[in-house]
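Notes from the 1:1 (GR / supervisor)

We went over the backlog. Supervisor wanted to see one worked example end to end before approving the batch request, so GR pasted a single chain during the call. The sequence is below; no edits were made to it. Supervisor asked that the structure be written out right there so they could see what the output format looks like.
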Amino acid sequence: MFDLDPGKLIVIGIVALIAIPSKDLPRVLRTLGQVTGRMRRMASEFQGQFMEAMREAELADLKKEIEETNRSIMSSAKLDGAFDPMTEVKKQITKAIEGEPKAEKSAEVAKEDDPDDVTAAFGAAPAPEPSGPPDAQGASEAQEPAEKPKE
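Structure output shown during the call:
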């Protein structure tokens, strides 16, 4: 604002020493310090008020934007009375009680697709094939040692 660099301050200080008598110098410096402090407090207060006004304006803009978004969502989805989760649950339970069980439906679908597919119809894994004793020929080969070298 005043654009005071250190060189200019030194010149002002020398002129002040010449112009102000030595017995009044402490009182003048104290008054100058108080005035400087008041100016800094006023500048800080002004800056704080300015920043607060900016925050309030920004919050007002955000609030307006949120209200517009809320209005557009409510108008497009019409959630004011159309959405009732209890009614939906009641309808699903009533359909399940009055209609066919889902296991029978899935069994019929599985029979139509692949008649041999038991797992799709009942959700169970097929029984494992029984494992019998090992082959007699395979067991004898496993037990025989390698051929003996000829002498």
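Supervisor's comment: The chain has a mean pLDDT of 75.
Batch request approved.
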